[in-house]
Design goal:
Belongs to the Mg-chelatase subunits D/I family. ComM subfamily. This protein is α/β, with parallel strands linked by helices and 513 residues long. It contains 20 helices and 18 strands. The chain has a five-stranded parallel β-sheet with strand order 11-14-17-10-18.
Length: 513
């Protein structure tokens, strides 16, 4: 006697359809699993046996063979418990139905309850892409998978309920999706109106957020770099449905979703410590998991004390910042994690922190200065669009001036520019100006003759690279969007150029040291 149940296996963020085939034959009682199952699945034998008996069912006292097809692909995860258990119980029914449009995922406890699993959303996406239209899943994974709008969800609490739904013994209607509140990572008490005396920096932050441009904040200790960076999430544009789905998918695969945060509807803000390892930042491991750079996908990766990070770690940012994805190769294949991020880095200009400061004298020796600045890789800095000097506020009693920007006012500007970009790039796969390729730059970034001449002169006099040249154009495109103009003019280019003023300042021998 044979039964077949459909489920999926997760590798990275991609899910493959798996057919659970269960055969029952005369012989000594035994349960064997084949099909490259990992330890978690092989250990499920005792969980499944106890769950079936404690749910009031009879466990077959015969030889059971469980085949996970296709047999040549590795499989892992506790979500195989439920489909295997249902498949075994189906062998005791008069007819064994094969529902080609239905799949099951879920871990079982010893008393037959269906428990929360990791990676429910990417599993559901993979099943949907392969024709599955009905999914039985744990209640605690319901909210994250409910982001999918074209698959019927049937939450189950235990093994008995799963059998009743599968056999049609209980009238079932799919879960009715309702609008839920948004989980917020931002602190509502943090507002840019608290940042006084830094209006030029706030303007640069507005440009960065509007076009999703990378941002380097360089300044002496206490100048407000971290304070500014932590407020950036409040002014970021709203996430589209596709961005919400993709971001939640990554966090689900990493096992970071919870009942309090079942899905991601606000742009992530990740702030790893400077002692982070390479695998934790980029991703990896024997069973590859997304790193901090992928967990920040569609959001912000904030590297505070950038100069204290191991240079071997920061060097790994080169290709991901350029490609928007991380490819991790292992013996079983290559796994890609998306990482389209807004990189925000904050750093002191030197070891003591006061190089170029108007009120303090730098005490670093030439050796210390060279050693510290060697941590700032030219290729990495070149991939950060805006380089901003943050000067210390000279007046401690400075109050908010009339016309100073608040988070609300900055976000209004950002949303306006983001709406223009969404309309301009509709159907191209591009969301922000920072994502434009070279050919798209020529198409979507028309310049006036004066603007082109200024950029050409700057390219020659400042010895800019072609990468920097294109980045200046993309930043100028964002500035023009903030002004509501279609053509990039001379003053847009001029403002974009001033955001690259730190490219060489901290490496010159005559910079005041």
């Amino acid at each position: 006697m044979l039964s077949k149940i459909f489920t999926a296996s997760l590798l990275g963020m991609e899910a493959d359809m798996v057919t659970v085939e269960i055969d029952l034959q005369p012989g000594l009682p035994a349960m064997n699993m084949v099909g490259l199952a990992d330890t978690t699945i092989k250990e499920a034998k005792e969980r499944i046996r106890a769950a079936i008996l404690n749910s009031g069912f009879e466990f077959p006292k015969r030889r059971i063979t469980v085949n996970l097809s296709p047999a040549g692909r590795p499989k892992e995860g506790s979500h195989f418990d439920l489909p295997i258990a249902v498949g075994i119980l189906l062998l005791g029914s008069q007819c064994v139905p094969v529902r080609t449009d239905t799949a099951l995922i879920g871990e079982l406890s010893l008393d037959g309850k269906v428990k929360h699993i990791r990676g429910a959303l990417p599993l559901a996406i993979g099943l949907r892409e392969r024709g599955i239209r009905k999914l039985l899943l744990p209640y605690k994974n319901l909210e994250e998978v409910a982001l999918l709008e074209d698959i019927d969800l049937y939450p189950v609490k235990d093994l008995q309920e799963s059998m009743d739904y599968y056999l049609g013994l209980r009238p079932a209607s799919p879960y009715n999706r309702k609008k839920k509140g948004t989980f917020s990572q931002a602190n509502p008490s943090d507002d840019f109106c608290d940042v006084v005396g830094q209006e030029c920096v706030k303007r640069a932050v507005t440009v960065a957020a509007a076009g999703n441009h990378g941002l380097l904040l360089m300044g002496s200790p206490g100048s407000g770099k971290t304070m500014i960076a932590k407020r950036i999430p409040q002014i970021m544009p709203e996430m589209s449905y596709a961005e919400q789905l993709e971001t939640t998918r990554i966090h689900s695969a990493a096992g970071l979703l919870s009942e309090n945060c079942p899905y991601i509807k606000e742009r992530p803000f990740r702030m790893p410590h400077h002692t982070i390892s390479r695998a934790a930042l980029i991703g990896g491991g024997s069973k590859p998991r997304p790193g901090e750079i992928s967990l920040a996908h569609n959001g912000i990766l904030f590297l505070d004390e950038f100069g204290e990070f191991d240079h071997r770690v920061t060097e790994l940012l080169r290709q991901p910042l350029e490609d928007g994805k991380v490819a991790i190769s292992r013996a079983r294949g290559t796994i890609a994690f998306p990482c389209s991020i807004m990189l925000v880095a904050a750093a002191n200009p030197c070891k003591c922190g006061y190089l170029g400061d108007e009120r303090h004298v730098c005490t670093c020796t030439e050796k210390q200065l060279n050693q510290y600045q060697s941590k700032f890789s030219g290729p990495v800095l070149e991939r950060i669009d805006l380089h901003i000097k943050v000067s210390a506020v000279l007046d401690p009693n400075l109050k908010k001036k009339e016309g100073a920007l608040s988070s609300y006012e900055m976000k209004k500007q950002v949303q306006k520019a983001a709406a223009l970009q969404a309309q301009r790039y509709k159907g191209t796969g591009v969301r922000f100006n920072s994502q434009l390729g070279e050919q798209q730059i020529y198409k979507y970034c028309p310049m006036t003759a004066a603007g082109r001449k200024l950029l050409t002169d700057a390219y020659q006099k400042l010895a800019l690279s072609m990468r920097t040249y294109y980045k200046i154009i993309k930043v100028a495109r964002t500035i023009a969007d903030l002004h509501g103009t279609h053509t990039i003019d001379e003053y847009h280019i001029a403002e974009a150029l001033q955001y690259r003023a730190l490219d060489d300042f901290y490496r010159r021998p005559d910079n005041g040291h």
